[in-house]
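Below is how a single chain appears once it has passed through the pipeline. First comes the sequence as given, then the structure the pipeline wrote out for it. We keep one example in the README because the format questions we get most often are answered faster by looking than by reading.
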Amino acid sequence: MTKLVIHSLICNETSDGMGADDIFINFQGIRVWGTTLVDAGQTHQMEAELDFNVRGRVDVWEFDSGSDNDHIGTFWVNRSQAGTGERSVSLTGDDSDYIITYEVLS
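Resulting structure:
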C-alpha cells in the first residue's frame, strides 16, 4: 500500500484577509485534519499519514458556519510519486494562499 504523509500547512494569506480561517482537510472524502484556526504567517506541522492504493484526492476547505464552506483547493497524489522526495503544492482558492508540503512513500 502507498502512503501519503502531509508534513505541513503554510498560510500566506487567509481567504478573506481579515483574520484566521477555520481549515479542514479531506482525503478521499474523509476528514483527516481540522477544523483548525489558521492565520496568515502560520505554519502547522501535521505529519498525517494516509494510506491509498493508486491515487488519492486531497481537498482543503475553509469552514463557514453561516454559509457554504469555501473550497481552498484540491490536489491529487499518485503511487508513481513514491520515493521522489518532499513536494509542495500551492492552493489559492477563495482569494487565499496556502502551501501544503507532503511526501508519497511506498
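The mean pLDDT is 96.

See the next section for the split statistics.
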